[in-house]
Amino acid sequence: MSPEFNQFPSIQGNNLNKEKKVVPDDFVDKNLIVIVAFQQWHQALVDESINLLENNGLGSTHNIIEVPTIRKTSKLNEIYLDGIMRAGIRDNRIRNRTITAYLDKEQFRKDLNIPDEETIYWFLVQKDTNNILERGYGVISNKELELIKSY
After folding, report:
1. What is the value of pTM for the model shown?
2. What is the CATH classification number for the domain harbouring 57?
3. pLDDT in tens, 7-57
4. Rounded Cα distance, 104 and 70, in Å
5. Domain containing 128: what range?
6. Is 84 among the domain residues?
7. How many domains does the chain have?
8. CB pairs under 8 A, 24+ apart, for 131-135?
């Protein structure tokens, strides 16, 4: 990985419990797994990845969050979209770990060297830092799971 893309940028958002969060800054007590989604249909890929991580015990050893990214829009539109997402998720634990980021998607992708929005991207961020230890795209595989566990 080239050195200019090994830092996860600080991004602000709200989780689905309406709490302001800064990623990765608010999650540095453990290694952090950030799963970034760009499209609504990516949710199934996010869920599959998180299930794999949690079913293999990483929910207790890592912070795991999903970050749906949405192009910056009006505050009213953001409130509306947050409400729709919140209504679809009843589980408080999932609401807590879902941080919606309204941002300049092109700049965000450029900052992380993400070529497109065709699939999800995941990042393993080192505890107490914003250093990216590993990264990948698509559903996390068993091989990638072992790589994440090795840190």
Report:
1. 0.92
2. 3.40.30.10
3. 999 999 999 999 999 999 999 999 999 999 999 899 999 999 999 999 999
4. 8
5. 31-149
6. yes
7. 1
8. 131/6, 131/7, 131/8, 132/1, 132/5, 132/6, 132/7, 132/8, 133/31, 135/1
